Amino acid sequence: MRIFHLSAECYPVAKVGGLADVVGALPKHQNQAGLQAAVVMPFYNRKFVHESQFDIVFQGTSLLGTRRIYFEILKEQSDKLGFELYLIKIPGLLDRENVYSYPDERDQFLAFQLCFLDWINWSGQKPDIVHCHDHHSGLIPFMMYHSALYTSLAHIPTVFTIHNGQYHGAFGWDRLELLPEVDFYKTGLLEWAGGINPLASAVKCCWKYTTVSPSYLYELTKSSNGLEYLFYIEGQKGVGILNGIDTEVWNPATDPMLPSHYNATTVTKGKAANKAALCQRFEIDKAKPLVAFIGRLVDEKGSDLLPAAIERSIEEHGDTVNFLVLGTGDAETEEGLKQLKETYPAQCAIFIGYDESLAHLVYAGSDFLLMPSRVEPCGLNQMYAMRYGTLPMVRSTGGLRDTVIDFGDEGGYGIRFDQVSVDDICSSINRAIDLYKDSRKLQTLRKRMMALDFSWGRSAKEYTDLYQSLIS
Ligand SMILES: Nc1ncnc2c1ncn2[C@@H]1O[C@H](COP(=O)(O)OP(=O)(O)O[C@H]2O[C@H](CO)[C@@H](O)[C@H](O)[C@H]2O)[C@@H](O)[C@H]1O
């Protein structure tokens, strides 16, 4: 069975967040299980691309409205990622450094989707399944099934995975002319709330959509930035499949980004060595419990509450707890965190920016990982944390609810709280500080977490079963 995954991100080619981790790992596991999975993504002017060798396997032109665009399909020569990697290169449009935030982003992703369809339409490279991820490839199901240009693709099942239902990629009807011509009566399949909405269109037109955790499937009907009713009426097409993690990349026993390696047996010593390196780098005291946050500084993650919650905890507990934040995003939150560092230099480590290897060290060297998310479709950080013996402190939502059991409950290992509020965050920090004093208990919980299996095996099988059900 041949599957094409369509995504804007894929680790290690180009990563902004968790989408990249999933698209960089799932196809590898699908191939190990005997499928033929490949990733198709835009070309980025980035390190991985410079350091890899590519063949041009197709050249063509697509029409973006009246604009004729020349494109190339580049295939990575060695399949070193464990899957075939195809990059779509369009001079002047898909050959830039960053993944998002260009003013013509809508054109970029539309062109990406059109060129993909033109390529598989003309080259005979037809897969058995087209698997689209998030709104950047959300118009593909509509175009495959409703555009006269692509009738030869109309029998291919599409699966659409929602990693983040808050972003829809919507645009106005004035841009309808950029899409291939369709019968006017079909344009309702593009529409939501008065505009063209790629996420909504994908949900309407795909054969099946999946969410990255079972809880999130339900939560989209309650909160999805205006698409709640759509998810309610299309609910029978939805399946919740929990993400896995790439246990080869995320393995404290072999992780090349860590100064000291460890496993469940050596966790206490191993984490202490990594914590020492981390604390030395940020000049904070390694003897105190270290509560960390890693992620995009956006409302969904509850990061706007971090400055107030950290300040209150430091005021309450005095010099007995340290905090580390690694992230970038909302300017006000960044400013609040910088001020925090100035006020409490000995207790706060703040890194504004994106740093993959520092993230690995933080998972290994922290005692607790805080995730006060308002919305968390799955969340990978808590799974990485647990794999590295770091206790997750999570708000009960989405995939956090599905993966973390409170240590106060039977067989539990983490800290859960209900509200996205400074009060709840601070109470969870109080519990973390108390737990840290009980080193024997902490050690038991660390070993318990490290024994959990969040690898892709089970989830990859669920995707295979889903594909199979569509093909047959
Ligand atoms: N400043 C920084 N420096 C270094 N590394 C950083 C970083 N900021 C974030 N990261 C890394 O980016 C990834 C973020 O993963 P999340 O699951 O939190 O992703 P995100 O919200 O982007 O993804 C969406 O998709 C994923 C995948 O489906 C879902 O798990 C999630 O709930 C959903 O919101 C992790 O690997 C983390 O370590």
TrEMBL record:
The GO molecular function terms of this record are: alpha-1,4-glucan glucosyltransferase (ADP-glucose donor) activity; alpha-1,4-glucan glucosyltransferase (UDP-glucose donor) activity
What SUPFAM superfamilies does this protein's entry cite?
A: UDP-Glycosyltransferase/glycogen phosphorylase
Q: Which Gene3D superfamilies match?
A: Glycogen Phosphorylase B (3.40.50.2000)
Q: Where is the Starch synthase catalytic domain?
A: 2-228
Q: Which Pfam families is this protein grouped with?
A: Glyco_transf_5, Glycos_transf_1
Q: What does this protein do?
A: Synthesizes alpha-1,4-glucan chains using ADP-glucose.
By what name is this protein known?
A: Glycogen synthase
Q: Which organism is it from?
A: Mucilaginibacter achroorhodeus
